[in-house]
Amino acid sequence: MKEYTVAILGATGAVGTQMLACLEEQEFPVGKIKLLASARSAGKTLSFRGEEVVIEEAAPAAFEGCDIVLGAADDAIAKQLLPAAVEAGATVVDNSHAFRMDPEVPLVIPEINADDVSWHKGIISNPNCATIIALVPTWPLHKVAGVKRMIVSTYQAASGAGAPGMAELEAQIAAMGRGEAIPEPKAFAAQLVSNLIPQIGGFDDEGYTSEEMKLQNEGRKIMHLPELAVCCTCVRVPVLRSHSESVTLEFERDITLEEAREALAGAPGVKLVDDRGAESAHDRFPMPIDTSDQDLIWVGRLRRDISNPEAARGITFWCCGDQIRKGAATNAVQIAKLLV
Ligand SMILES: NC(=O)C1=CN([C@@H]2O[C@H](COP(=O)(O)OP(=O)(O)OC[C@H]3O[C@@H](n4cnc5c(N)ncnc54)[C@H](OP(=O)(O)O)[C@@H]3O)[C@@H](O)[C@H]2O)C=CC1
Ligand SMILES: N[C@@H](CC(=O)OP(=O)(O)O)C(=O)O
Fold first, then answer.
1. Reported ipTM
2. Which of the four CATH numbers 1.10.10.10, 3.40.50.150, 3.40.50.720, 3.50.50.60 does domain 4-127+328-339 have?
């Protein structure tokens, strides 16, 4: 089997380290791995398949000889460095927001639009994590009844803001446990422990944040639904890992709860956990503590939207998924597998 030279840009971060683990877990045919990060990390090592790999400082020349580059750095670094990877002949799967809405760049969730990979011109984007977690279970329901409107509230984990976000919440939890003053927030706009922050990203003129508009804009592109109507509220919650979302869907056609349940139970990437009679809360509905460090989107609390005047056209549910895995690294490695 052919083997590939794979680079990870941002290899030391929350997503980059998970990508390295996913390449190993998914048995991606890696011949050579290159780990790229800032000058701060150059010379340090990370383990891959039992061997220590030395991290290099990211620079255009580092992409020479690479077949696939997985991007796990922020927008500015992605824009600055990834075009050089394409020029060097590599195919890029990027996790940042930098190229997602570029009409020349496919935006892919393999369970939904794997075929879009076929028209890439060097870069394929991985969608926003909250968008992936909402759309994986929305898609099988869309195929039954045609989704036209989504009303979503997200409950996003601290690690969505990367390694610094996770470290900040851990430090705040530790200080609270010791009865000490909570350290000043840096990664977030306010103290997160014992709090909720209803702002992720900057506000637009309508008062929506950039994170909230991603579900509409990226959702339309991924599902090929240019008219999809979305109203989203994104909230940062004091959970370390795994995003949760409340999703209400309005459909073009009637859909029964039984049809919805059947569609979700057989859908790729989805695990239906919806048993009101179960003895343990862990089996009754999805919770982020159960969905961390695994790849499925768990769906539960499935019910009719009783506020919808056309009662047969509204379904509401709750879902949780690990945003560092399926919301980022796992999805990117799945895309890379489509390429080989
Ligand atoms: N965290 C999440 O849940 C998700 C994140 N994403 C996206 O993935 C990307 C990575 O996020 P995340 O892993 O959370 O972020 P982190 O802050 O945890 O990691 C950032 C990475 O970028 C590297 N980096 C920083 N400066 C430079 C530089 N000048 N040159 C090269 N590399 C540099 C860092 O290296 P060093 O350690 O040397 O500083 C580190 O490896 C972002 O675009 C983010 O929006 C997407 C979906 C989910
Ligand atoms: N913004 C998301 C994570 C993320 O990095 O998203 P994006 O890749 O769209 O910037 C969160 O904080 O939970």
1. 0.98
2. 3.40.50.720
